[in-house]
């Protein structure tokens, strides 16, 4: 799936680019949409590290020439490992050299793996190599491990495993405008419904608006101090005072400040915001 395009994925792409250059072949990656878990269990509330557009950008940034996006539907789900090799890899993609991850499986009931590819390669004219796992703190880096880190607010570990700072993007929408009444106007971000949000709480972030960079402090939560119910994503941008409603904004997560807190009124909230602002201003970006 290449969800996250993390350091493990990047090692595969690096190997792919090296082989394609040596053999004068074009580099390509096959990935799927929607995530297979959504097909196996439509009620699965899986959130993803990347939107499709983010994934495309990250893959291109790592030097990939072609991205093939295959719809993961019932017909595709029922292909056996052998059928996948013949119909997809050989007939459609005309693969000459295949690079797979250390734990790669494919086909119905995970019937295809590295050994099957090695077996079928000579018959269909392709070579295959397997890339070893990339580790972080004795864990094999995976999209699952990164999701776990983000769900705990462990931004530093998530960013280390990704090889870049985790980000979210979206359109600035109208909120309740409570922040502006206490000197902290925030931009409310409408985030893709499938995008994984880190743990509820406050974060130090990079903010990118109109191709300009700013420091920011971002809140994910329900605003319990003012009896909010729905999850919102709001960012206060330091040294910024512009109307950016309906514009696109991106934030990169740098550090977890604290968990979501229900204060005994707006005065207590302002004291905490003042401290968060100080920490954000002093943070070395």
UniProtKB/TrEMBL annotation:
One of its GO terms (molecular function) is riboflavin kinase activity. It is an enzyme of class 2 (transferase). It catalyses: riboflavin + ATP = FMN + ADP + H(+); FMN + ATP + H(+) = FAD + diphosphate. Pfam families: FAD_syn, Flavokinase. InterPro entries: FAD_synthase, Riboflavin_kinase, Riboflavin_kinase_bac, Riboflavin_kinase_bac/euk, Riboflavin_kinase_dom_sf, Rossmann-like_a/b/a_fold. Keywords: ATP-binding, FAD, Flavoprotein, FMN, Kinase, Multifunctional enzyme, Nucleotide-binding, Nucleotidyltransferase, Transferase. This is Riboflavin biosynthesis protein.
